[in-house]
């Protein structure tokens, strides 16, 4: 532990200029946040001409019914226009809040609020919680029209919206309540660790955040998600038998198999699994069941179980923890940097002893360009994992033969082909874009494009057949 703290201290020595040099950090944040936004707008402008294509890629021509491709292109074009406007609008709002002192005002407003409740400035954690929720609620208001438009105009126009105004409002209120119920204790412990551990907070904070994530793995499906959607045991039938059989053959620790009423809000479809290593739960959207055949849903689940087999969730967790560790390792220099707070307009008496939550928020803003690069790298890793999960589905027959025998592997030889059909069906029915600019995809997509996945599945199938000869 002493070695770790020694290395972290060396990092802070190299960053000591932050605590004394009069850098205009607010200008830096404004310039780089706008740079990122304009780059994202440029990517949209690269992608937009592809929505004018009049025919799908040759490999997909037979899969689109008359008029379906035109609907897909119209949906993609409308989403791109909305994304371009909303991205610039959100950045303009954020930039205005930053430029005109919204953040210093929010800190002072939080102080005034807790004073009215009988608490003084010595209750910094309480003021910090009030500060965060003032920021959260007030900064949400300008973007509510965008959420409303996206749901009741854009999604409605293209036939996907199932959300009623009542559900929209109640979902919003529920999300605010959940943010407070879970966010307030999280912030309190988060900040208490800083008070208790001082500059040696990094390992303790990492341990707390990992513990919190594991707790949320349990609480989200059992406490939070039921507030928004109904999870029911998947009914008996061919699909249930297929999935339970697949789980048994792979020794997947399936505890519950749920159907979720995703159609309550949207006709888009999905499937996923969650849980602790020894107890997993599979959730299938009712829309996926309605849109796909049981053998295709089984293939989609085979892909998902490939993620489990190759420990992709665990690997992503480790990568994210390394990312968080890097951020926390850099933070102490900014925690003790009055010039940073002063450059953002905080009064001298606040900047003199920077509140932890304020310093951390500003530090996150300063990292904006770095986080944009990190997101590209994370997408690249995610896409690699998606190809590996596809390979698992294609090679599933051989894996089951090796572990459970030929009888158990019967009917699995075409799993890759079934997965390909399922992907095509889901893309067509969800009006997903099939023409994608490579740079736009690299920045935005955590999954390979449909044509990339189909090509990969075809190559894997050919390799599998050659291996069997």
TrEMBL record:
A Pfam family of this chain: Peptidase_M48
Keywords (A to Z) from UniProt: Endoplasmic reticulum, Hydrolase, Membrane, Metal-binding, Metalloprotease, Protease, Transmembrane, Transmembrane helix, Zinc
Recorded GO CC terms: endoplasmic reticulum membrane
Biological processes per GO annotation: CAAX-box protein processing
Cofactor note: Binds 1 zinc ion per subunit.
Domain of life from the UniProt record: Eukaryota
CDD domains in UniProt: M48A_Zmpste24p_like
Domain Peptidase M48 span(s) in chain numbering: 235-459
InterPro entries: CAXX_Prtase_1 (IPR027057), Peptidase_M48 (IPR001915), Peptidase_M48_N (IPR032456)
Residue spans crossing the bilayer: 125-154, 175-195, 201-220, 317-337, 357-381
EC number(s) per entry: 3.4.24.84
Active site location: 304, 390 (proton donor)
Main location: endoplasmic reticulum
Catalytic activity: Hydrolyzes the peptide bond -P2-(S-farnesyl or geranylgeranyl)C-P1'-P2'-P3'-COOH where P1' and P2' are amino acids with aliphatic side chains and P3' is any C-terminal residue
Compartment(s) of residence: Endoplasmic reticulum membrane
Cofactor: Zn(2+)
Residues of the signal peptide: none
Family: Belongs to the peptidase M48A family.
Protein task: Proteolytically removes the C-terminal three residues of farnesylated proteins.
Protein name: CAAX prenyl protease
Species in which this protein is naturally found: Candolleomyces aberdarensis
């Amino acid at each position: 532990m002493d070695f770790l703290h020694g290395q972290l201290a060396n990092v802070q020595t190299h960053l000591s200029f932050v605590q004394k040099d009069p850098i205009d950090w607010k200008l830096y944040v404004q310039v780089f946040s706008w740079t990122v936004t304009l780059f994202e707008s440029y990517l949209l402008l690269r992608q937009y001409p592809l929505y004018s294509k009049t025919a799908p890629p040759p490999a997909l021509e037979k899969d689109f019914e008359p008029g379906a491709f035109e609907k897909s292109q119209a949906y993609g074009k409308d989403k791109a226009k909305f994304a371009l406007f909303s991205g610039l609008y959100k950045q303009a709002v954020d930039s205005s809040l930053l430029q005109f002192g919204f953040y210093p005002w929010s800190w002072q407003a939080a102080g005034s609020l807790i004073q009215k409740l009988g608490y003084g400035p010595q209750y910094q954690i309480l003021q910090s919680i009030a500060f965060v929720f003032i920021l959260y609620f007030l900064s949400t208001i300008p973007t509510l029209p965008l959420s409303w438009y996206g749901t009741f105009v854009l999604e409605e126009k293209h036939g996907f919206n199932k959300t009623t105004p009542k559900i929209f409002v109640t979902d919003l209120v529920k999300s605010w309540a959940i943010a407070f119920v879970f966010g307030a204790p999280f912030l309190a412990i988060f900040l208490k660790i800083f008070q208790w551990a001082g500059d040696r907070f990094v390992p303790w904070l990492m341990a707390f955040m990992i513990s919190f994530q594991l707790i949320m793995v349990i609480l989200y499906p059992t406490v939070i998600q039921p507030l928004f959607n109904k999870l029911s045991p998947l009914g008996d039938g061919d699909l249930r038998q297929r999935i339970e059989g697949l789980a048994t053959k792979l020794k997947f620790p399936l505890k519950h198999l749920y159907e979720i009423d995703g159609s309550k809000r949207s006709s888009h479809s999905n499937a996923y699994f969650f849980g602790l290593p020894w107890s997993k739960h599979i959730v299938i959207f009712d829309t996926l069941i309605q849109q796909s055949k049981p053998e295709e849903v089984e293939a989609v689940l085979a892909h998902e179980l490939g993620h489990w087999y190759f420990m992709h969730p665990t690997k992503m967790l480790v990568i994210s923890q390394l990312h968080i560790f890097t951020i926390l390792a850099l933070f102490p220099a900014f925690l003790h940097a009055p010039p940073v707070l002063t450059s953002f307009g905080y009064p001298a008496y606040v900047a003199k002893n920077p509140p932890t939550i304020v310093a951390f928020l500003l530090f996150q803003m300063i990292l904006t360009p770095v986080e944009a690069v990190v997101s590209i790298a994370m997408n690249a890793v995610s896409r690699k994992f998606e190809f590996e999960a596809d390979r698992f589905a294609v090679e599933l027959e051989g894996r089951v033969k090796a572990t459970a025998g030929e009888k158990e592997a019967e009917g699995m030889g075409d799993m890759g082909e079934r997965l390909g059909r399922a992907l095509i069906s889901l893309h067509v029915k969800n009006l997903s874009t099939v023409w994608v600019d490579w740079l736009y995809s690299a920045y935005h997509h955590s999954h390979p494009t449909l044509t990339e996945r189909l090509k990969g599945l075809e190559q894997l199938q050919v390799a599998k057949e050659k291996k069997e000869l």
